[in-house]
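Hi R.,

Here's the chain you asked about this morning:
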Amino acid sequence: MTILEAIDARHSVRAYQDKPIDPETRRQLDGFAAACNQESGLNIFIRYDDPDGFDSRLAHYGRFRNVRNYIVLSGKKSDDFEFLCGYYGEKMVLFAQQHHLNTCWAALTFNKKKVKALIPAGETLCMVIALGYGETQGTSRKSKSARDVVETPCDLPWFSQGIEAALKAPTAVNQQKFRFSLRNGSPFISVRGIGSMTKVDLGIVAYHFEAASGKKVLH
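And the predicted structure, written out as tokens:
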């Protein structure tokens, strides 16, 4: 499965099969997380066979069921911390999709107390991502149009491809508050208005754009 096929196939999934992730897939996931940490300076790691992370009233309220594996996004706080968590977290999400696993971002609907206990002193927990074999493959959601998110019209193929992929990126409560423009010929992403986890959203969306366009996004 290519990265573009993974972007098309990936949807949020909250209910999972009682099926463990096999050892070889775990090895590849852990290796990819290590590579992401090397690039970003974050501390991304995966908890396997651990139902405690989503054992809470909030998780049940969020309709999460049988989540036994999850990706933890943490690290030392910096100006770019949330953006990096979004960017590299989505890299993990799409890598997992390429290995036929399903995911769902979670900002509030997990057991924060239990997950925070896993974080080393001096580091900050950003979010977690449910991981496993979904009961379904999820469904597509309503999306804005390219006209809604582009401030600088551009008919270059790479830009159009990037925007198409960006519109498929998950954002908090499907806000899609991001905007793209061009600055000296380079794509630039910003956020319009305020909302929960908008900096994380920008990182997620930036990765989608870069994966499809091959162009580095400024922010």
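Residues 162 and 212 are 5 Å apart (CA to CA).

Let me know if you need anything else.
M.
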